[in-house]
Amino acid sequence: MSATIPVDHAHGHAHEHPHGLRRWTFATNHKDIGTLYLWFSLTMFMIGGVLALVIRAELFQPGVQIVSPERYNQMVTMHGLMMIFGAIMPAFVGFANWMIPLMVGASDMAFARMNNFSFWLLPPAALLLAGSFFTPGGATAAGWTMYPPLSTQMGVGMDMAIFAIHIMGISSILGAINIIVTILNMRAPGMTLMKMPMFCWTWLITAYLLIAVMPVLAGAVTMMLTDRHFGTTFFNAAGGGDPVMYQHVFWFFGHPEVYIMILPAFGIISQVIPAFSRKPLFGYASMVYATASIAILSFIVWAHHMFATGMPVTGQLFFMYATMLIAVPTGVKVFNWIATMWRGSMSFETPMLWAVGFIWVFTIGGFSGLILAVAPIDIQVTDTYYVIAHFHYVLVAGSLFALFAGFYYWVPKWTGHMYNEWRGKFHFWNSLVWFNVAFFPMHFLGLAGMPRRYVDYPAQFTDFNMVATVGAFGFGLSQVYFLFFVVLPTIRGGAAAPAKPWEGAEGLEWTVPSPAPFHTFENPPLVK
């Protein structure tokens, strides 16, 4: 794909843009809103990370040391909600806001004011979640899945969490509409759908998933709210309801949600690997179809989270085989990434290290997921640390590693400065090693029978818990290093970045100067 850009004001500096507080409060420029999303998600990562470290410190040895059992369960719950709805999802939306208009040659996102609104919904929701710790009963302690009857017995902190989830869901839906309209209606002349960068494809499909499943979550928590306060009995067996129905509704949202958090990651990896292999992506069309089929299949696997609820055996078999089937398009992606690298002229700058690390560690998470798909095994390890190991391998080593790959890849375009390569590699190797030290032992804890969400445990689990806690603190400190020694110095200064800092990078975003000017593509580029 090559591009020619009309010279007259292609990167117009003619328009004055707002400065100071007004620039950020009333931001309608996609780059500014992308930056707001990224700072918000980094803040939530840090808060959620502190909660995780308190949890791990408590589990360093048997007994109740640091927090009470009630407070412990509140922290486990809030860690999950903040990391999913406050950190990972907004981070990917930040990437989408920054990069999609640049990649498709659009002047901005389709609905600029709605874009601003969808961001400013998030801070109040985050305040509701964080503030619920300070209510009389504390935050909700029902787990991030908020199963009744636990969730119907919690204090006012539960209501705050329900309200926060509603607000974040509205934000997600508005953002998804914006992304769909931008991609479908604002592509540069000559950029057909099958010429689009993979990151745009994965986000287009993710946006449709968001619109499909966020209302389902809203319905589940609304029914819970009316059970709590308005005398309904949707999930109360005594009144003719069914607590397991909540699980069905929740996971019909929850499983596509897992792919909402990984498909944009696949898109980032599909941009980084061809750039540093200096080859086009292998099997582009098959990648598009694999992404679409993952999204479609994600709607028919939800009850694999519920094998232990006493499902009929035919239901177990259906969900078992459907879950195994979804591994096929995921395997296609991994194969295509490896085939892209095969005999490529590879170099291992920091973005490529994160991308290769992502493939390795995400594949481990994929294999443990395949094991959990087997109903008889799943029934044995349901609600143990094996499950925790599995989903942290796909969410931390999946979503987060891809976000880091994307950060190092595009930060020269965002800031106009090159990051320090040595520091980037130091951040990568520390994160990779400490992540595995933290989460790999959890597989063994789970197989030995240690249940999740327990503040105390028998002495035989002590050694692996100690190792996991040391790894968690190492991983956490690596991210503090990232903030203070990579992000902030790169924003403040560093070597000036050229328009195209990576030799093998392709795409319209590398045709604009670094940093990307406030207004780009006022006259759309022509894609040949």
Automatic annotation (TrEMBL):
It is found in: Cell membrane; Membrane. It comes from the Bacteria. One of its GO terms (biological process) is electron transport coupled proton transport. It holds the Pfam family COX1. GO terms for cellular component: plasma membrane; respiratory chain complex IV. The chain crosses the membrane at residues 36-55, 75-98, 119-141, 161-186, 198-225, 245-269, 281-305, 317-339, 351-375, 387-411, 432-450, 470-491. The keyword Electron transport applies. It catalyses: 4 Fe(II)-[cytochrome c] + O2 + 8 H(+)(in) = 4 Fe(III)-[cytochrome c] + 2 H2O + 4 H(+)(out). It is a multi-pass membrane protein. Its EC number is 7.1.1.9. Keywords: Cell membrane, Copper, Electron transport, Heme, Iron, Membrane, Metal-binding, Respiratory chain, Translocase, Transmembrane, Transmembrane helix, Transport. GO terms for molecular function: cytochrome-c oxidase activity; heme binding; metal ion binding. Pathway: Energy metabolism; oxidative phosphorylation. The keyword Ligase does not apply. Residues 24-528 form the Cytochrome oxidase subunit I profile domain. Gene3D superfamilies: Cytochrome c oxidase-like, subunit I domain. Cytochrome c oxidase is the component of the respiratory chain that catalyzes the reduction of oxygen to water. Subunits 1-3 form the functional core of the enzyme complex. CO I is the catalytic subunit of the enzyme. Electrons originating in cytochrome c are transferred via the copper A center of subunit 2 and heme A of subunit 1 to the bimetallic center formed by heme A3 and copper B. NCBIfam families: CtaD_CoxA. Belongs to the heme-copper respiratory oxidase family. This is Cytochrome c oxidase subunit 1. It comes from Noviherbaspirillum pedocola. The lineage of its organism: Bacteria, Pseudomonadati, Pseudomonadota, Betaproteobacteria, Burkholderiales. The gene is ctaD.
